[in-house]
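Objective 1.3, modelling of assemblies. Example input:
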Amino acid sequence: MKPTLKNDRFLRALRRQAVDVTPVWMMRQAGRYLPEYRATRSKAGNFMNLCQNPELACEVTLQPLDRFPLDAAILFSDILTIPDAMGLGLYFEEGEGPRFQHPVTDEEAVAKLAVPDPNDELRYVTDAVSLIRRELDGRVPLIGFSGSPWTLATYMVEGGSSKTFSCIKGMMYSRPDLLHRILAVLADSVSVYLAAQIEAGAQAVMVFDTWGGSLSPATYREFSLAYMTKIVEKLKADATTRDVPVVLFTKGGGQWLELMADSGCDALGLDWTTDLSDARARVGDRVALQGNIDPCVLYAPPDTIREQVAMTLASFGKGNGHVFNLGHGIHPAVNPEHAAALVEAVHELSRQYHQ
Amino acid sequence: MKPTLKNDRFLRALRRQAVDVTPVWMMRQAGRYLPEYRATRSKAGNFMNLCQNPELACEVTLQPLDRFPLDAAILFSDILTIPDAMGLGLYFEEGEGPRFQHPVTDEEAVAKLAVPDPNDELRYVTDAVSLIRRELDGRVPLIGFSGSPWTLATYMVEGGSSKTFSCIKGMMYSRPDLLHRILAVLADSVSVYLAAQIEAGAQAVMVFDTWGGSLSPATYREFSLAYMTKIVEKLKADATTRDVPVVLFTKGGGQWLELMADSGCDALGLDWTTDLSDARARVGDRVALQGNIDPCVLYAPPDTIREQVAMTLASFGKGNGHVFNLGHGIHPAVNPEHAAALVEAVHELSRQYHQ
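Predicted structure (tokens):
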């Protein structure tokens, strides 16, 4: 028997229902800007230990909620859990970002890829979701998440982060068949992974397409959006997952919001390069919008943060369907008191838009 | 007495006049993908020596024209010549990109900034322009260029490249007055710098706003576009510069094309995230368009390059006002024969659109 949800603003906003104030959470709200996070991470030894230990993952997930009156918790994990579970050997080099020991660069490597079992290789994730949901005890909803197929594939083919995406785009233009096979396995993997997170207790799910914005309109549709759409369709076709809101976020995807809304998702995440007023005019009768203040605003003094929050709220305007968030993850160097100022300002200043 | 221009397709297309085939050049066409460039650079010792020696800069500017039937030459130089001439001490660390010894981080450093004299501190640039123009002997037009004020300021305030722009955006939100002073000096500097390049022989000029796409719509207008507009206005107000076409290129600026066209410029550079057909429908009756194939297409085999060129040409369609280009600089790992295939395909396949 799950406890009653005491604060359902976030889920109501994703469904474009009325709320008292605009709900707010922050991408990477459990992260390095919090000293208590750094303490737990140092206890864990390294980043992957932290992700793979459900008790520690639960601990850091809840830390920002103890500081700020956030309206949602998000599972603490990494976007690269799926390729790691596929046997690619994820590791982190200090200051270098994620790397894979076995990048997927040829036909043979592609042929070996298989959908990981979310209740076996990825059991540490579903265990963390169950534990966090229990510990939250109905305070706020819990968000599950995954990287998008395209974004996961960039790391798998490049062997790590990239500025130019030359390996994966080389494959895309030279051997599109090979890339489509990778993306098909990933779309299946993400679908069962998110379904398992929902089964374990996630009350909304978000797909992070961090690198979709590196594509052209045609290749975005074919190599990123098509596979996110398959995921949405699978989740919406199954009675056990269909009522859970799905948020799609393509960083740099501001030009393609109409196409993204066509996927059947419930909400779109927006970075700060698109005005909420424009986005709302384009797709706001079909999906909720989540975003979109520049995380760099948090380097400003609290009074300026408040002004910027006011502008963001005014851009969305009156009515339902807005979840306040940053346009990307909070930076490690941000002062936690500035994050507090943002959250407070959202709740205080948004009341007028919900009367 | 300047020699007659034998190939004026590029200038005609920028003025949206009829041409026989679509003109083509490639951003960074004089660059590391060419073995002859690597030989000259190694002779120069380092990158800044190459930029500061007019004979060597002329040599590398002309190299791609000897290989490919390109329709324009572009001055070989660096975008950071202006801040270097301001005394910030530009240097390059292997694999690290450009750095400044004296970043502009406080009021005192801002107060010291002054407009460099293009015929003194930047004389090596105008000398290179004169020499290249003479050596070109009317084969194709010569493009001069500068970084945009915002883009130059990012390097000056960050002290080098950045992924997050946290220093300059911290300044933008905390001390906008300080950043406006930096940008005002830079807009004046770029204006006289481009005017001097024109005086020395540049037949078109391009402003590279490589990092404008990191801004929000409101901050883009205030901190990047406003200053590019000042530059365009100054060039268009002076009888000696007004007839020279000005191209503005904001990478990641696909959402703001209408605003950019309002600047009074003659053409917009486009990256590959916007379809030329859409861009043309939005602003093509006011400005020419330059772009926009993904440079990663050049990793594909020549047949695929040809198909992608065909799609890009078809996207613009029949009529005047298209300069073919990549959506960003050519990558160092590209095979020069693939660049040849692109140039050849543009000329061959575009003839049908100009009948």
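Chain A has a mean pLDDT of 97.
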